[in-house]
Amino acid sequence: MLRLDIHVPESSLNKGGRLKVYLEEVGSPENVKIGEISLEESEPTTEKATRTSLREREPDGSRKTYEVNIPSNYGYDKDTIGYGSSGFETFHIDVPPSLRGKVAKLTFELQGAEPVYIDNAFFKSEVLKWGNPTEARNDLQFENNFLIEKPQYTLSYNRSKNTVNWVGWKLDKTWLGSITRDSSGVGGFAEDPDVRKTGWYSVQDSDYDALNLRARTGEVVDNRQGTRYPDGFIDFETDDKGKYIPMLSIDRGHMTPAADRNRTLKDYYATYLTTNLLPQQSENNQGVWKNLEKKVRDVIDNSAKSDSLATYSFAGGYGYYDNPVNRPYTGISQNSNLEPLIQFPLGLWKVVFTEENNAELPTFAHYGVYMGNDARIGYQKTSVQEIENLLNNDLRDVSPKYQFLSNVPESPDKESIKNTPFERFL
Question: pTM for this one?
Answer without folding.
Answer: 0.93
